[in-house]
Amino acid sequence: MNEVSSIINILFQIYYYMILIYILMSWLPNLRENFIGELLGKLVEPYLSPFRRIIPPLFGTIDISPIIAIIVLRFAVGGLHSIVALIFG
């Protein structure tokens, strides 16, 4: 069970940093137009888009939906840990 939990943590950390880098890339729009920016967009945007539809930007410019998305992802990882602990003991 410890190995499965470690894999879940590693995957969460990777996706967390992908979201974080993608958010930081939005401050410099030209970065999103290169290969890495497009790749991150294809991997992260499907997860972020439902949150962007639900949570409008504050004052028209400040997008807090990625913060909420990361919090929800953390809760999902905690739930996944609980399920793995229940299955594997």
Automatic annotation (TrEMBL):
Keywords: Membrane, Transmembrane, Transmembrane helix. Belongs to the YggT family. This is YggT family protein. The chain crosses the membrane at residues 7-28, 67-88. Pfam families: CCB3_YggT. Coiled coil: none annotated. The keyword Transmembrane helix applies.
